[in-house]
Every structure is written in structure tokens, then in C-alpha cells.
């Protein structure tokens, strides 16, 4: 790549075209009186040795990416004195796995994942160098691409480096570009006479190189390397708004990916249920973007995603398959099973009062428009606020996968509709007539002995019991979509 083109790119990426001219006219040894600094004094941001790379879904900021190696420390003359140089190889994390077989069509790839890497490839979109935000030209770097990173650091000189990106594919090789003749790593290997076949490809891990080296490279006049952040997009199949990942396929990938994730047998997953959920979430524009670290508990992570999308994950006892179901207004109250005196063995019903409700909900999320800093959305139910207890009773919730104000406001309104009104719960023993019910199903209750008529509940949990016992035990909660249906007893 010619330096004239490089200078032009700097104008786009950081207004640093002038640096090219400045470096052109600096002497080989710098201004008189300067002693060339020694590169042994580099200071790096702290990182745990052997720290695992996170899983990346959607478009997210990765702070303190794992440093795989650094090399080529040096210093060079610049207008502000001697400026330091170094090459860093960082991994922001692991993207979606890209080779799922279709159980219905052996030998074929699962349709939503087919060629997603070609259609919606992972991208490196921007760098944070300390507090400085340095975006690449839209839409960012793809596999095997190189671009310039530049920014004026004021009294500390300038950042002038080459960025290079690999997207974590299965057959990844980092000693040659697919889109060019050579790269920083390849040049170093050639100069050192190293056998390229011995260099690991870091397969399945996205890689970012920041190479401040050669005649013009610089990280400034200080050996202190500030905190580095990378904005990475790995949206996968059926993304939301082109930036966020589809939560249904995120859960699927966490469960089924054989590379560093749970690795559950894909043939034991009800793929059509995930496809149906993905379509609904795409229509609702309910996406997620997050970096998941391997030290985090899988159940808690998946539970957090399910909370945002209002879904349940369970094993269907009839098929043995893992099913994803979204809780939506997806039933006809006149057609759902009815719990009556004849099929209910025992029922313990609790009606929660106004004092147990909230009149406000505050949702905390990572706002992409604010460099992924914490932001919040809040909604109030004024009628509840001026009722029996005239004070603020806020319900706090954090959706770490939410990155937009618009989605946060949708979620806060949804949650307020649930917590701002009294609701009922029940633990019920039913006869085997209900042997086929599943978590998330809607049931209607007609229990005249406790004054409940045509009230719709959702199944929270099911204990199918023993066949000889003849009963199943069900935990229920009043369905928010059926709140206007039926009646409770008069107080």
C-alpha cells in the first residue's frame, strides 16, 4: 500500500494526514540533544495470563482484549522527540460457530447458518486508545483486511499504526492475507527466517493486529500503552438492525457449539422452535449484543437472555428435545385446557396485593450511542403512584444485552405492565389429563370453591411425578396477556 494512499486514509480515520508530511521531514536521529529511548520500558494494561477470550455476539465494545503476544519494540525519531513503536496481537473473542448440520437434511448446513460468514462477516469497527475513539471507515474491516489507525495524541505525539483483522474461521491462517500479498506478521517471519507452518492460526478466535513499526509507526512519546478497547461486530444469522445478534441463535450457539461452549448434541435440540423464536424476535427488533466471558455461569447467562426476550427453555418429555418458547399472546382463551373441580386434585392460590406491586421500572443497559457506557430507561404507572401507597416503589432490572434506547424503552414498558398490578400465583396438583403440558403453556382456571372464574395462568414449572401417583404438580403465575379475562373473588 503506497504512503500517499495511507495519508489519505488517515484523513478519513482520524484527521492525521498531516502526520505523514511531518514524519517525512524528521531526521533519522531526531532533534539534537535527544537520547534514543530504550524499548525495555514498555508498560502494558494489566491482563491475566492465560485469560480466556470472551464469546462475542452482536456489536459490542471489548475492553482489555486478550494480548496473545507483542513484539518489535523500538523507537523512532519524530517531531516531538523519539516515539515508541511496538506490534500487538490481540484477540477480542470467539464469534458464532459456522458449521451446524441440518438434522432434517443430512449433509446440508442448517439454513440460518448457511454462509452467514460470507453474507454478514465479523468486522473490526473501531479502536479505543485510552479515551480516544478511532473508528474505521464504514462498515469496518473484514477478514484479511488492513487499514491505518491514526490519531494526534497532543503533547504525547501521535498514534500511527496499521490494523489487521482475522475473523476467527475454522481454517484460519495468519501468515498471509487472503486479500493481499503480505502482512505485518508475514514480513516479520520472512525477516527472521521462521518456518511459517509453525505459526498457530488461532483458529475460531478473531484477531486484531496493531502494528506501529517501520519508518513511520508510532504509539507516541510515552512507553505507557493505555487501555485498549475494540468495537467488534459478530452478528451471525438473522441479525437485528444489522448490528445486534438474534437472541434465539445466540442461545442455540451457546448450547450447541462444540468449540469452547456447552457442546450439546445438536440433534437433541428442537431447531424449528428456535427458528420460530428467531423470526418473532426479528419482527420485534429485540436483539442483543454482549461479550460473554467463559468464567461466567452458563445458566445465568442464558437466563439473562431469556429474561430480555421473555422466553423459557426446557426439555420436552415427549421428544427429549430442547425447546425454546417465547411468552406471547399466542393462545385463544376459549380453546386452552381448563382446570376444574373434576381435574384439580389440590390448589394453593396466592393473590398478591397492591402493596406488593411496583409503580415504576428502571432498566439499565449498555448504550451503544454512548460508547457502551451504562444508561437507563424508566417508566411510571401514575395511577399506582397515587393509590394506596403514594410513594415511588421502583423495580430495578439490568439487560446487559440491550444496547439501544429504543429497545430499552420497549422493555421497560413491558416489565411495568407486569409488576404494576396485583397478580396471582398457584401451586396445583392436577390429574394425568394434563400429562402433555409444558412450561410456558397457558391454562384457564375455573375453581368456584375459591372464587376464581375463567382466569388464565401460565405454566412456570412442571413436576410430572410418578405414574403410580396419578398426579402432576404445576407452578403457575397469572398471565399478563389474560389480565382482563376472568375474575378473582371479591375481597
Query: What is the percent of helical residues?
Result: 10-25%
Largest sheet: 6 strands, antiparallel
Strand content: 25-35%
Shape: elongated
Global Rg:
28 Å
Which stretches are low in confidence, meaning pLDDT under 50 for 5 or more residues running?
A: 1-40, 485-491
Write down the overall mean pLDDT: 81
Counting DSSP H or I runs of 4 or more residues, the number of helices is: 9
Give the helix/strand class: alpha+beta
Number of strands: 22
How many angstroms separate the termini?
80 Å
What does this structure look like?
Residues 1-40 and 485-491 have low confidence and may be disordered. Strand 2 and strand 3 (81-93) form a beta hairpin. The protein is elongated and about 90 Å long. The strands form five sheets. Strands 2, 3, 6, 7, 8 and 9 form a six-stranded antiparallel β-sheet that branches. Helices cover 18% and strands 32% of the residues. The chain has helices at 3-13, 17-24, 116-119, 184-192, 247-256, 271-284, 298-309, 382-385, 405-419, and strands at 55-63, 66-78, 81-93, 123-129, 132-135, 145-152, 158-167, 206-212, 218-219, 228-234, 290-292, 311-315, 322-326, 338-339, 344-351, 360-367, 373-380, 394-398, 424-431, 442-447, 452-463, 471-478. Helix 1 crosses helix 2 and helix 5 packs antiparallel against helix 6. It is an alpha+beta fold.
Amino acid at each position: 500500500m503506497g504512503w500517499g494512499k495511507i495519508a489519505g486514509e488517515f484523513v478519513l480515520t482520524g484527521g492525521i494526514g498531516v502526520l505523514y508530511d511531518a514524519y517525512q521531514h524528521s531526521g533519522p536521529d531526531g532533534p539534537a540533544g535527544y537520547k534514543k529511548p530504550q524499548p525495555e520500558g514498555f508498560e502494558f494494561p494489566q491482563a491475566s495470563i492465560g485469560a480466556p477470550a470472551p464469546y462475542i455476539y452482536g456489536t459490542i465494545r471489548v475492553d482489555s482484549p486478550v494480548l496473545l503476544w507483542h513484539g518489535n519494540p523500538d523507537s523512532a525519531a519524530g517531531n516531538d522527540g523519539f516515539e515508541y513503536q511496538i506490534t500487538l496481537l490481540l484477540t477480542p473473542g470467539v464469534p458464532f460457530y459456522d458449521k451446524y448440520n441440518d438434522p432434517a437434511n443430512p449433509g446440508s448446513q442448517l439454513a440460518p447458518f448457511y454462509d452467514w460468514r460470507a453474507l454478514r462477516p465479523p468486522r473490526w469497527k473501531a479502536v479505543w486508545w485510552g479515551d480516544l475513539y478511532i473508528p474505521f471507515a464504514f462498515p469496518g474491516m473484514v477478514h484479511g483486511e488492513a487499514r491505518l489507525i491514526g490519531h494526534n495524541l497532543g503533547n504525547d505525539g501521535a498514534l500511527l499504526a496499521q490494523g489487521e483483522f482475522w475473523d476467527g474461521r475454522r481454517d484460519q491462517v495468519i501468515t498471509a492475507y487472503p486479500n493481499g500479498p503480505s502482512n505485518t506478521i508475514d514480513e516479520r517471519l520472512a525477516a527472521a527466517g521462521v518456518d511459517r507452518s509453525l505459526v498457530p492460526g488461532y483458529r475460531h478466535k478473531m484477531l486484531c493486529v496493531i502494528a506501529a513499526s517501520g519508518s513511520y509507526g508510532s504509539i507516541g512519546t510515552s512507553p505507557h500503552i493505555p487501555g485498549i478497547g475494540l468495537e467488534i461486530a459478530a452478528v451471525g444469522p438473522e441479525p437485528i438492525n444489522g448490528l445486534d445478534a438474534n437472541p434465539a441463535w445466540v442461545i442455540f450457539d451457546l448450547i450447541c457449539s462444540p468449540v469452547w461452549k456447552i457442546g450439546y448434541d445438536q440433534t437433541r435440540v428442537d431447531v424449528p422452535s428456535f427458528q420460530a423464536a428467531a423470526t418473532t424476535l426479528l419482527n420485534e427488533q429485540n436483539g442483543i449484543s454482549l461479550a460473554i466471558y467463559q468464567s461466567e455461569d452458563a445458566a445465568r447467562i442464558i437466563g439473562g437472555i431469556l429474561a430480555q426476550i421473555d422466553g423459557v427453555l426446557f426439555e420436552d418429555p415427549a421428544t427429549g428435545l430442547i425447546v425454546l418458547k417465547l411468552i406471547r399472546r399466542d393462545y385463544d382463551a376459549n380453546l386452552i385446557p381448563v382446570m376444574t373441580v373434576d381435574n384439580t386434585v389440590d390448589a394453593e392460590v396466592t393473590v398478591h396485593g397492591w402493596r406488593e406491586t411496583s409503580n415504576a421500572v428502571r432498566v439499565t443497559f449498555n448504550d451503544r450511542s454512548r460508547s457502551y457506557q451504562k444508561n437507563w430507561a424508566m417508566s411510571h404507572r401514575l395511577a399506582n403512584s397515587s393509590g394506596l401507597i403514594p410513594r415511588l416503589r421502583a423495580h430495578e432490572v439490568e439487560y446487559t444485552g440491550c444496547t439501544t434506547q429504543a429497545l430499552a424503552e420497549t422493555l421497560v414498558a413491558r416489565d411495568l405492565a407486569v409488576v404494576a398490578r396485583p397478580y396471582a400465583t398457584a401451586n396445583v396438583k392436577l390429574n394425568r389429563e394434563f400429562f402433555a403440558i409444558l412450561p410456558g403453556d397457558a391454562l384457564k382456571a375455573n375453581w368456584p370453591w375459591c372464587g376464581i372464574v375463567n382466569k388464565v395462568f401460565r405454566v412456570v414449572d412442571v413436576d410430572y411425578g410418578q405414574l403410580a401417583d396419578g398426579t402432576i404438580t404445576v407452578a403457575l403465575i397469572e398471565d399478563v396477556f389474560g389480565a382482563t379475562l376472568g375474575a378473582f373473588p371479591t375481597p
